[in-house]
Design goal:
Blueprint: H1 2-13, H2 15-19, H3 24-36, H4 58-70, H5 74-92, E1 112-114, E2 119-121, H6 133-148, H7 152-171, H8 175-178
Helix pairs in contact: 1-3, 1-5, 1-6, 1-7, 3-5, 4-5, 6-7
């Protein structure tokens, strides 16, 4: 679920509160964006393949992290947070269900596409499906740093995201009725 990925990005970026407090909000916003970014491939019809790079996002993430450690200014911190969150998102998708309209049926063995190897990584199904109760729980838990460590802007975005995640969790199993095409 995009909200879980954004919350995980936010939790990871919270290290900036200690290491680079003047850029903590920048890191948070970039991480939320990076956590959500791979799911834009839903619009392309190639979900978990077009913008999901579970291996390749690490290529810009590591140098960006190194740059942010050496020069902790706005742009390096933002790039590090963005690419780290995008990389984590792409890898996390293999821990959930397959890429299918009704993931609770467990009919797909396509978790996320690995462009480097040219094959799909099988879903582990640790989280049964996007929008499952355990997914909402993860969103809520990873959102805690957004409420505790940040100012009004990040708190507002975090609250709005958790509310949307809860709403999505309530209607998730009905989504296929209204969107019979591959939209999840």
């Amino acid at each position: 679920m995009v909200f879980t990925h954004a919350a995980v990005g936010l939790a990871l970026a919270s290290v900036a509160v200690v290491l680079s407090p003047e850029h903590a909000t920048t890191a948070a916003l970039a991480a939320v964006s990076g956590g959500a970014f791979p799911d834009l491939d839903l619009l392309a019809g190639q979900h978990r393949r077009t913008l999901h790079f579970p291996v390749l996002y690490w290529l810009p993430a590591f140098p960006a992290l190194a740059a942010a450690a050496v020069v902790p200014t706005g742009l390096p911190v933002a790039l590090a947070a963005f690419f780290l969150a995008a990389a984590i998102h792409s890898g996390m998708d293999a821990l959930g269900a397959g890429d299918e309209l009704r993931p609770w049926e467990a009919t797909s063995e396509e978790g996320v596409y690995d462009h480097l190897r040219g094959q799909w990584i099988a879903p582990r199904r640790w989280v049964r499906y996007d929008g499952a109760p355990e997914d909402l729980l993860l969103t809520t838990l990873f959102a805690v740093p957004g409420f505790v460590l940040y100012g009004e802007t990040v708190r507002t975005i975090t609250l709005f995201s958790v509310i949307l995640a809860a709403g999505y969790a309530l209607v998730r199993k009905r989504v296929p009725e209204y969107f019979p095409e591959r939209l999840q």
